Amino acid sequence: MIETVSTRCCIAGGGPAGMMLALLLARMGVDVFVLEKHADFLRDFRGDTIHPSTLELMYELGILDEFLKRPHQEVRELSGQVGDDAVTIADFTHLPTHCKFLALMPQWDFLDFIKEQAGRYPTFHLRMNAEVTDLLQKQGNVEGLRAKTPDGSLEIRAALSIGADGRHSVVRQRANLEVIDLGAPMDVMWMRISCRPSDPGQTLGHFDGGKILVMINRESYWQCAFVIPKGEADAIRRAGLPAFRENIANLAPVLRDRMEELADWKDVSLLTVTIDRLSQWSRPGLLCIGDAAHAMSPIGGVGINLAIQDAVATANLLGPILLRKAPSESDLHAVQQRRSFPTRATQRLQVAIQNNVIRRVLGSSKPFALPWPLKLLRRWPILRRIPARLVGVGFRPEHVKTPDVRSAA
Prior knowledge:
Elements: E1 2-12, H1 16-27, E2 32-35, E3 49-50, H2 52-61, H3 64-68, E4 73-75, E5 77-82, E6 85-91, E7 102-104, H4 107-118, E8 124-127, E9 131-138, E10 141-149, E11 152-163, H5 170-174, E12 179-181, E13 186-194, E14 205-208, E15 211-217, E16 221-229, H6 233-239, H7 241-251, E17 269-271, E18 276-278, E19 282-283, E20 286-288, H8 303-322, H9 329-362, H10 372-379, H11 385-392, H12 405-408
Parallel strand pairs: 1-2, 1-11, 2-8, 5-14, 11-20
Antiparallel strand pairs: 3-7, 4-7, 5-6, 9-10, 10-11, 12-18, 13-16, 13-17, 14-15, 15-16, 19-20
């Protein structure tokens, strides 16, 4: 039996882009249906950074105070350790935003919060355990999405379908949209290691001897990312877990006495890093946003920020149209035109860091000297505002321009 539902907008993927877009559309009275393939939002090692520009959107929506009541950590500076040299890289305390910090919050808590906010509007619908498998098409036009659920097949017919289902997007595959791969010289092995009150404060990255370790303080544990050359995960596993633990301990000696917590390779998750973008984000009746349109490197943790900015631009440009009719091809292309510059600029910056820093570190077994840009940051602290602006706000930040039907009522 096939269940059929009609709506104005159907969104594949309940991640940051999909849920934020659903909230914004429902907030202005557009009937919207989100399909999320998992039973909940609980996934480890997803991006947990909420940037100042995203917090600014929360302020514009009037939900910032409520959001900040949720458990989170606030990071006002980012530091790095290059060999024996420590340097502060970014200072967020001078940003032109209400929140002058990065908020660290598990992504499942963030998504649950957005779901609660969207649930206040009767036009918001969310179906969990609904995995999108195909597009509903007629004469080249996308008319909705097909999904499988524990109860059988589900067809959502919609004036607009949105692919927000991540870097391995089924939607963009089924739509045969061209992917431009920009390349990435690295992958990342993620793990949790306990954190103690006596541990030092937040240090973002450790660079030394051809190895890179990123540590994010989550109060009860360190979320650690061991950066490796692309495709080397199997070789690292063959070398054995003791050798892997020793590599981590050499980069972060404070963790040496608790490395036995990594008892099995199951305690280490692999993220295959990809930087790509679609040459065209849309087809008639269909638009891709977030990682489905442009997969980002974990550098700077900006992927969530870009995805949410896409959602805001999409709501601003297409929301008023969806209240009246189906968006045209030119309407859909306007979203790509709006978001193309920040996407390309951010990816260009990430590729430059990959090629000039990460590739050099991973390709050498010698101690890595403090590069001249970091020497400038240490000598002139005012320069730390530049990376803070690039990471915390980004290129062309979006602002909420859509109305709230509850306020109008």
